[in-house]
Design goal:
With 167 residues, this protein is an alpha/beta fold. The protein has helices at residues 45-63, 79-98, 108-115, 123-133, 142-165, and strands at residues 4-11, 17-25, 28-37, 67-72, 103-107.
Length: 167
């Protein structure tokens, strides 16, 4: 059946940071939990990043994942948006890494292609396929579904690396 690995997927964002935890054993996937961290938008940037760090840290302590996966953010809304989102992404990468977890990074198009079969899938298609792949998953909104999709993408690519590289 393959070795069991618990993965936390993270969809970074300063307003809404989606997270999802799955277990993967061979080609079997199991839903564990998901949700969205929502740092207080009335706080300073530094405080919002600290809230995100604390929230992700608490989730890692609670669910004890073996590995993490983070989406590479794509922003075409200007330099300021890209810079802010990059800082949230930095926290999403650093928090699991600081706790000793290996962290995989995946482009949004690769996540979509891995889940739906096309790199230009919309949010509804992603949510439908996540629900198909994880029938017991219950999520409110696209951020948690995207995080689960990132975790599923990591599980698929992890299994592929094991087959191809024996790693």
């Amino acid at each position: 059946m393959g070795d069991m690995v618990r993965i936390i997927g993270i969809d970074p964002g300063l307003r809404r940071c989606g997270w999802g935890v799955i277990e993967s054993a061979g080609n079997r996937l199991s839903f564990i939990a998901c949700g969205t961290l929502t740092p207080d938008t009335g706080n300073s940037l530094a405080m919002r990043l600290a809230e995100m760090h604390a929230g992700l840290g608490a989730l890692i302590e609670r669910f004890r994942p073996d590995e993490a996966a983070v989406e590479e953010t794509f922003v075409n809304q200007g330099a300021r948006s890209a810079l802010l989102l990059g800082q949230a992404r930095g926290v999403a990468l650093m928090t699991p890494a600081s706790r000793g977890l290996p962290v995989g990074e995946y482009a949004a198009n690769l996540v979509k292609k891995s889940i739906v079969g096309t790199g230009h899938a919309d949010k509804d298609q992603i949510q439908l396929m996540v629900k198909t792949l994880l029938p017991s998953a219950s999520f409110k909104g696209a951020d948690a579904a995207d995080a689960l999709a990132i975790a599923i993408c990591h599980a698929h690519h992890r299994a592929h690396r094991k087959l191809v590289l024996g790693a």
